[in-house]
Amino acid sequence: MPKWFLFTLLVLANFIWSGSFTATSIAAESIAPTLIVMTRMVVGGMLLSALFIRPRNGSEWNLLKAVRIALLGLLGFTLPVTMETIGIHISSRHWERFQSRSNLY
């Protein structure tokens, strides 16, 4: 692939990633943060599950392997994203209170 195409994909991924914070902040005003996270994880899981439907290279899935992967996903991604979304929700409410008390805007 040409370098300009890869660079364009990198910039596009950066815009999507950074735009998710704004979208989460807007959504957190009217939707519970845990529902936002649950929706993001379910949609992401459905999109990525196609990669893990069948084992590759002769490796087989067993219960222990599935539990380890689920635990890593929960602790390494889902929990931090949940805390981030709750933080965005809390800071959005405090920012609105600050704006209503001050005459800055």
SSE string: HHH
* Total of helices: 3
Low-confidence stretches: none
pLDDT averaged over residues: 79
Q: What is the terminal separation in angstroms? A: 48 Å
Radius of gyration: 19 Å
Determine the strand fraction and express it as a percent band: under 5%
Tally of strands:
0
Class inferred from helices and paired strands: mainly alpha
Taken from the alpha-carbon principal axes, the silhouette is flat
Q: How would you sum up the major sheet? A: none
Percentage of residues in helical conformation: over 70%
Plain-language structure description:
The protein has three helices and no strands. The protein has helices spanning 3-27, 33-48, 63-101. It starts with a helix and ends with a helix.
Give the SSE map.
Layout: H1 3-27, H2 33-48, H3 63-101
Produce a short descriptive summary.
With 105 residues, the protein is mainly alpha-helical.
Task: Give structural attributes.
105 residues, mainly alpha, flat
